[in-house]
Amino acid sequence: MIYLLGGSGYVGHAYQALLSRKGIAFRNVRRAELDYTNGAVLRDALRRDRPEFLINAAGYTGKPNVDACELHRHECLFGNAVLPGIVADACADAGVPWGHVSSGCIYTGARSDGSGFTEQDIPNFTFRTNNCSFYSGSKGLGEEVLAGKPNVYVWRLRIPFNEVDSPRNYLSKLMRYTTLLEATNSISHLDEFVAATFACWEKRVPYGTYNVTNPGAVTTHEVVDLIQQSGVSDKKFVFFKDEADFMRTAAKTPRSNCVMDSSKLASVGITMTPVRDAIRTSLKNWQKA
Ligand SMILES: NC(=O)c1ccc[n+]([C@@H]2O[C@H](COP(=O)([O-])OP(=O)(O)OC[C@H]3O[C@@H](n4cnc5c(N)ncnc54)[C@H](OP(=O)(O)O)[C@@H]3O)[C@@H](O)[C@H]2O)c1
Predict the structure, then answer these.
(1) Burial 107-143 (b: 16+ CB within 10 A, else e)
(2) pLDDT tens digit string along 69-84?
(3) How far is the CA of 74 from the centre of ligand 1 (A)?
(4) How far apart are CA 272 and CA 207, in angstroms?
């Protein structure tokens, strides 16, 4: 049996769908029913139920976007930096291996040669290194809390998308925003992300950190072109002049835009669809809300 924390959320729902589809028994643990943010409560539940693995898809993302994290710093720090340590200790005490959903948003830009950041690169969009958002800083601290802990996977998700129209889906966001920011990003197909991360456990690949993004990177203009070619939207897309224009008129905090290298994941035999193909397929199978 698998323990799933944060199963009620956007990413957690995708884990629920995956585990149901695979016929794997799981317990969708909600704070309201079992307060897993209390270490002793979680440890005792793990000792009682003895799950073979735990997935932590819980965290604080800020709604409607990361700007909300600038206002709700306590919740953000607790959900993203403190909670992973609580889960780590409870899992260690109960002898349960686990996986943590982190984020690639702890990086900005690309390596100096234009290639993607690997798991070896020190995050450069954190409280330690740059003028980051509070959200990115909190996710960076969460990874620091888990550094060197045994029996844990740290899976970095980036800007999730799939074929289901939703306010949380990157493709929907691009179609709904009035003005877009041009940027280059590696991004993650949500259902491929949950399948790839669970495969880490199923295949018993070495514990540690994995960038779980579809291979490659895309610019906002390229994604807009794919949306237009697909016929899903005939909207006339408008862009901010530059990042300064975006910051002045639409945002409270800087955004992470970055290129990630997912070859470590591929090296353990877990492959994801190249990013443009994954976007094209999502648009071809688009399910309008
Ligand atoms: N969505 C993205 O764009 C994205 C990108 C990269 C990484 N991530 C990471 O993926 C994880 C899940 O994100 P999500 O988009 O699925 O978030 P979400 O829809 O807001 O769901 C998160 C779930 O976490 C639980 N939770 C536990 N502590 C919390 C707290 N302090 N504040 C708010 N919720 C808390 C809640 O479940 P219960 O109350 O039912 O237990 C909630 O339903 C987070 O760690 C996030 O940083 C998300």
Answers:
(1) bbbbeeeeebbebeeebbbbbeebebbbbbbbbbbbb
(2) 999 999 999 999 999 9
(3) 15
(4) 19
